[in-house]
Design goal:
three-stranded mixed sheet
Length: 434
């Protein structure tokens, strides 16, 4: 059901994009002012973003979706933003994580390590908001580039040898991914004459059979790009090092960034490979299933092999992506519900673990977060209790949300042809994490 708003409410769908963009521009002019002024403005802008996302959620929670055509140009010529339950839910999770990460950065002076932290932070939110709302593949590419450019600066914020080395790998891989994205988008436009995802869903099944090989090649390249963003094996090797060596607040915010890749895969799967897609129907499911299983296994192995807590949390992010994409690959409504329940859980727990790992590293002096003996640290009972709760949740033990999400996934897999593989790998990975 498409909903049309009137008056100022008609501008609500574009607000999550414009608000952080405007905040970033204002912060550029405030860079000569005191850090306290920048902090207050950035926090107020993030709170306002959260309020806007809540207002949007109230509008779409009953199944409506809001369509915003920039400049009132119709699709496929114009740029279209689509706010539905999935997109707005992702925006809401992003705003909550961003607010927590920003508060942590301010309280621990992480934003003082360089002059442009708050500008980059708001630009990252600008790119994330656009990526979740866009209804057009080319503009998805544009917003990907915006959030990646901001993430390069955030990842390297504060400098250091390990951070620079991890950042170099991250930048090179994503530049290659961006180039492949352009190739795929160009091929799809040449074949169909549109990049609007709703139009593509109508036009692609009508293409002649002679275009089939080129169409499949373009879509496969597109999915490889999304798999890189989602840290799907074998394109996940960059993540533990990059996330484990950046600042805690940035790593916490990046917990949502890998979900952009998963979100893009889900969007493309539903719109281009769903029922009624002709020869493309269900085409993504089989390869995504086995890649997700392999990612789960690799994430669990990385957790066991880690030598520090922050590195271990990076591998936990890889493991969570394998679990999430495994749910999406099953192709049933029950599995989709399980994946969408697990998604915010994995974001919040991963972000909290990155922040907690930093507190542990600060309290252990020279030992930092390495798995080696160190003198007792301050507040160890509180930090140990928090770690215990988060560890239970990420391992999937009852009664916390991690258990509920994995239980729903296992239930959804019971009727699937490869259900035994799902049970074995999910439970085995959970045991390894425990």
């Amino acid at each position: 059901m498409t909903s049309v708003l009137s008056g100022w409410m008609a501008q609500l769908p574009i607000a999550p994009v414009l608000l952080p963009l405007a905040a970033g521009i204002v912060l550029l002019f405030l860079r000569g002012r005191s850090l306290r002024v920048q902090r207050v403005f950035s926090l107020l802008a993030t709170l306002a973003l959260l309020a806007v996302d809540v207002a949007l959620w109230l509008r779409v929670q009953h199944g409506a979706h809001l369509v915003y055509a920039l400049g009132d140009w119709p699709a496929p010529i114009g740029i279209v933003l689509v706010a539905d339950q999935l997109a707005v839910g992702m925006l809401l999770v992003t705003a909550l994580v961003a607010l927590g990460a920003l508060l942590y950065a301010v309280m621990n002076d992480e934003d003082a390590a360089g002059p442009h932290f708050h500008v980059l932070f708001q630009m990252e939110l600008f790119g994330l908001g656009g990526a979740f709302l866009t209804g057009d593949l080319f503009n998805l590419f544009v917003f990907f580039e915006v959030l990646l450019l901001a993430s390069y600066g955030l990842l390297l914020h504060g400098g250091g040898r390990l951070r620079t080395r991890a950042g170099l790998h991250y930048v090179v891989l994503n530049l290659v991914g961006s180039t492949l994205f352009l190739f795929a988008v160009g091929a799809l436009y040449g074949l169909s004459g549109t990049l609007n995802m709703a139009d593509l869903a109508v036009r692609l099944p009508l293409l002649p059979l002679s275009d089939g090989p080129l169409l499949r090649s373009a879509l496969l390249v597109l999915l490889v790009v999304f798999a890189l963003k989602a840290a799907l094996l074998p394109l996940s090797l960059w993540l533990p090092s990059a996330y484990g060596n950046t600042s805690a607040a940035v790593a916490a915010l990046f917990a949502i960034m890998t979900k952009v890749g998963a979100y893009a895969i889900l969007r493309v799967d539903i719109m281009l490979f769903g029922q009624g897609s002709g020869v493309l129907a269900g085409w993504i499911g089989p390869w995504l299933f086995w890649a997700a299983l392999a990612t789960l296994i690799a994430g669990a192995a990385g957790v066991l092999a880690s030598s520090s807590l922050r590195q271990q949390v990076g591998h936990l992010v890889v493991l969570s992506m394998g679990t999430l994409l495994l749910a999406f690959s099953l192709g049933t409504q029950q599995a989709l519900v399980a994946g969408l329940y697990y998604l915010p859980h994995s974001v919040f727990v991963s972000a909290a673990l990155f922040l907690l790992a930093d507190l542990v590293a600060r309290g252990r002096g020279a030992a930092s977060d390495g798995f080696e003996p160190a003198p007792p640290m301050p507040h160890r009972a509180l930090l140990g209790g928090l770690f215990f709760v988060l560890a239970i949740s990420v391992a999937g033990l009852p009664p916390l949300s991690g258990f509920i999400g994995k239980f729903m996934l296992l239930q959804a897999a019971q009727s699937q042809p490869h259900g035994a593989w799902v049970w074995a790998v999910v439970l085995g990975a959970g045991l390894a994490v425990l």
